[in-house]
Amino acid sequence: MNDQNAGMDVTTAIFQRRSVRHFLEAPVERKVIMEAIKAASWAPSGLNNQPWRFAIIWDTDLKEQLAKLTRYAAVLRSAPVLVVVFLDKESSYDSVKDVQAVGAAIQNLLLTLHSKGLGAVWIGEILKNQERLLAILDLPDRLQLMAVVAAGHPAHRSQSSHRRSLEELILLER
Ligand SMILES: Cc1cc2nc3c(=O)[nH]c(=O)nc-3n(C[C@H](O)[C@H](O)[C@H](O)COP(=O)(O)O)c2cc1C
Prior knowledge:
binds flavin mononucleotide; alpha+beta; NADH Oxidase; 17% strand; four-stranded antiparallel β-sheet
């Protein structure tokens, strides 16, 4: 954990966070990952149904098996830890609202990792291989794969990004 970032303001974290796809080999503290997952679990959800579920993957062999399911294999391989995020269909009450809630949870996870000095990227390309992922992890098919978040100490912070201007985004104000 980077203490300089302790208690980082939420808007600072939002604006500073960039997807990180290259990681150092330096180990990641389990307690930081648990804190980020706790922050994820404090996302809002419809009827407070908390439909998110997580699998934490440190094991090199398991990471390699998951890496083979995506063209972002190099990202998964180089990340010291993967957080696999699911929607538990048994906790679901409204498919759209449940997916929205899990998205909010993933954003909390990313922002918390950033605020603790870690880098991460939300990998969605792997969703096409949900069945194979569930088989590898020996998890039941009531779980719908939402994302794999690859996390670790960033190899660099030179990633840039851009956003549409507010003029393009705000359709109406009166
Ligand atoms: C639903 C979703 C799926 C994504 N899937 C991938 C992915 O499969 N691979 C990847 O490298 N980045 C993926 N990303 C990260 C986006 O590419 C990234 O957030 C976007 O380019 C904006 O860059 P920034 O996160 O650095 O601001 C995904 C993001 C979201 C929200």
